[in-house]
Amino acid sequence: MSPDDRLAALAEEWDRRYASAPQVFRAAPDESLVELVSPLPTGTAIDLGAGEGRNSLWLARKGWNVVAVDASRVALNRLSDAAEAEGLSIKIVADDLISYVANVQVAGKTIDLVVLAYIHPDPSGRPELLTAAAHSRPSSES
Fold this sequence. Notes:
Radius of gyration: 14 Å
Helix content: 40-55%
Low-confidence stretches: 138-142
CATH class: Alpha Beta
Largest sheet: 4 strands, parallel
Order of helices and strands: HHEHEHEHEH
CATH topology: Rossmann fold
Number of strands: 4
CATH superfamily: Vaccinia Virus protein VP39
Strand content: 5-15%
Distance between the termini: 29 Å
Number of domains: 1
Number of helices: 6
Shape: globular
């Protein structure tokens, strides 16, 4: 299966799941994220598998520059609507997580935080995703 076919199948699966209810996951941010990130200075964060955006929204409210990445356009549309309603600026990216972090470009900004919370990668893709996330760099530092 080509990467494009894999992304299309993944997006279709998650779009169906998100379309099944007005909100699929809870709105509160992940407790561990809040605990670990609250004392940090703000910067640029990439939320991989952002879904409906509970963590992205929390980060943006705290002053982080956020890039939210997910395969599901249904979920990302909800995130975009919520961000707009609150006057928050979040960059929304519909992409495969591994492809995105392997080619990350954040307009010359340092990536200070990569969020991987409640993601569901294929077990065979986990090492690649975690390795790519750990080595994320903006294009100017590559």
